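Hi there. Long-time user, first ticket. I'm pasting a complex I've been working with (about 624 residues overall). I'd like to know whether the download I got is complete or cut off, because the file seemed smaller than I expected. Thanks.
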Amino acid sequence: MALLEVKGLTKAYDQLKVVDTFDLKVHQGELRCLLGPNGAGKTTTLDLITGRQKATSGIISLNDTVITHWPEHLRVRHGLGRKFQVPAVFKGLTVQQNLTVAHNRTTSPIRNMFVLRDGAAQTRVRQVATQVGLARRLRDKAEELSHGETQWLEIGMVLIQNPQVLLMDEPTAGMTAQETYKTGEIFNSLKGSHTLLVVEHDMGFVRQIAERVTVMHMGRFLAEGTIAEIENDSEVRRVYLGKEGKASHA
Amino acid sequence: MNSLYDNRTLQWIVYFVFFAVLAVLPMFIENAFTTNLFSRFIVLGMLALSVSVVWGFGGILSLGQGIAFGLAAYGMGMTMQMQSQDPVNAPIPSFMLTNELTELPALWIPFWHTPTGIALALIVPTIFFGVFGAMMFQARLVGVFVAIVTLAMLSAWYSMAFDMQPYTAGFNGISPPAPLNIAGHAIDPYSHEAYWIVLAFLAALTLGMKLLLSTKFGLVVQAIRDDPERARFLGYSVAGYQVTIFTISGFIAAVAGVLWVMIVQYVSPTALEVQFSVSMVIWAAVGGRMSLLGAIIGAFFVNGIQSYLGDELLYGFLLVLGGLFIVIVRFLPNGLAGLLEMALARIGRSKAPGPDAEPGTPPVAASAAPRSQV
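Hi, the file is complete. Here it is re-exported in full:
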């Protein structure tokens, strides 16, 4: 049984279908990469799954519960965590405060009025900060971080929620090769214990982390398999990598 | 990097010293008029506090704080007016008689009972802010649209207060002939007692807000200010937090409205004027909207200048006020408190340990501390 399942997902703007009857199954503990050329509908698919955009039709279910029409925050509470393409952190807050907010054991405004000290949360904050390499920057404001560090902070903010499924939209965008490799190591450390759906363009990074890959094209499902199978798929090479292209970087 | 400005212990000390200085201030004032003027400044500081809470920390630019202030002021005005009425010989305020009302309107009847009247003066505006806020924030109104809608609502209340002359005394306003009487004790608006009462409320609200904003609730509110969508995707009901902080700010403005009428014995539609509510935003901006104390000091500062220059310049002072706002927005976006923050950060940098120093393990309270509070 799939942990995250999408059936016939469609998003249309008038006659234009940016996601067209797309199906996807992600199983518990799996790290799945979602590939496709620009405009393939990858980010829109994440938007639909997380509720940022409303689906025109189709069904989204998480852990056997249909969440298609739920508001964003309820989907998150049910187990979805999302990292955005453009890093979204609270720039006016410190790294520690960002992670504290993300540690959402209680989300009620009234209950949180009585949370002044939460030692357990701070222990977890330090664990995650260490995991994403920001332990020494806890007191720094997010606006003082480099681009790569900001990406890691957002990854940490998703991790600390301990969601059932982590949706990562281009987590290495704008990173140096060294930062990308380190991010890959973080993701590899999550394999098995976490379920991830990663949208990514960098084929080197995909090779570093991917177990299975799903390819989209023009909003539709194109292919699925291991990275080797995908790289050797003639249809994928035609629409995505170019007929004679090398699968080094999209 | 944290500076002295972010030192929470120091912040609390500054807060207590500030209120201690204000508490002893009347000892050095012999003029009753000046005491009353200072009491008024304190109430205006309370309004700046409400703007700081909702705008500085909540990121909601409300130009309608005057609604809560005005409604509460009318409630208190009605309560004090009814204290002066005789149930048998003079059950109706005189302005109603001149407006050809023959009996007390149902709306006024609860205000015969002073505790009920004061409670209504506080509860009605607070509930109104809750409902109004829910309508705005459930619809995901943000930024300038919130400013426009609150301004429009303020104008609607102003028109209503102005036009419903038989019930509100219209342009003339309500002038209770006697000071507020609590359990047989009259509170002279020009006394030190009145000053200390309003100061006690300001201190309680400010320290209460500082504590509240130090909780996880306060941290989430500031996170929503920075990026509402990110907060939503962390599982928070953004509208729920926005409605809550908006309602709290409405309550603070309502307390200010009640106390205002206690010390001026007068309420008119001017309490609901657009210019007055915009002024509150300017006070907070001048002092520093992201600092509770800064906003209060901003109100003292601007109104102090106004009381000094206002007599000379009359309406020309509005030009001074507008010019001040432009200068602050352009050169000091965080107001006077921001200036202090920059200065302390500079001192902190000169004393900061090297980059290899251990970051330590800050307490949770520090982690939940708002960015700017002094």
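A couple of notes from our side: Chain A touches chain B through 50 residues (CB under 8 Å). DSSP finds ten helices and ten strands in chain A.
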